[in-house]
Amino acid sequence: MERRSTLVVGASPEPSRYSNRATHRLLGAGHPVVLLGKRTGEIAGIPIQRSLEPGIAVHTITLYVAPAHQHALMKELLALQPARIIFNPGTENPPFEAEARTRGIEVVEGCTLVMLASGQF
Fold first, then answer.
1. Can you spell out the DSSP letters for 25-48?
2. Share of the chain above pLDDT 90, in %
3. Is 121 exposed, middle or buried (0-12, 13-18, 19+ CB in 10 A)?
4. Could you tell me if 88 and 112 are in contact, meaning their C-beta atoms sit under 8 angstroms apart?
5. Residue 68: HSE in the Cβ half-sphere, 13 Å Cα cutoff
6. What is the pTM of this model?
7. d(C-alpha 27, C-alpha 113), whole Å
8. For residue range 9-63, what is the model confidence (pLDDT) as tens digits?
9. Where exactly are the structural domains of the chain?
10. What separation in angstroms does the CA of 52 have from each of 55, 120, 121?
11. How far apart are CA 38 and CA 117, in angstroms?
12. Three-class SS state of 9
């Protein structure tokens, strides 16, 4: 499988956060990452951006942001035209998921960590 970039939304430099753990596992599996979070910092030497750079290309978006905070990001994330969006536990958002599906984006309600561990990523 070709390795393509994954955008981790809700990235946190805090080692106990699932977004941090997922970033380390993605990198360990050879997947390049782009990190987006509300605070700057870094994970494994990769800077966490507070806004998206224009023209970035990502295959997968994995969400670690509660639905109440997704609305401000939804339009920008959909504009990236990813192949897949993973709604990790607690991030499920039916309106966002429906809009992604209408745009031909694969929607997965699942855990990135479990997907990586089971070879389903």
1. HHHHTT--EEEE-SS--EETTEEE
2. 89
3. buried
4. yes
5. 0
6. 0.94
7. 12
8. 999 999 999 999 999 999 999 999 999 999 999 999 999 999 998 878 999 999 9
9. 6-117
10. 9, 27, 23
11. 27
12. strand
Q: Could you say which of 2.40.10.220, 3.90.180.10, 3.30.420.10, 3.40.50.720 is the CATH number of the domain covering 6-117?
A: 3.40.50.720
Q: Which tokens belong to 87?
A: 């709604």
Q: Is 92 exposed, middle or buried (0-12, 13-18, 19+ CB in 10 A)?
A: middle
CA angle 53, 56, 57 (to 5 degrees): 165
State the pairing for strand pair 42-43/46-49.
antiparallel
**Cα 60 from chain centroid (whole Å):** 7
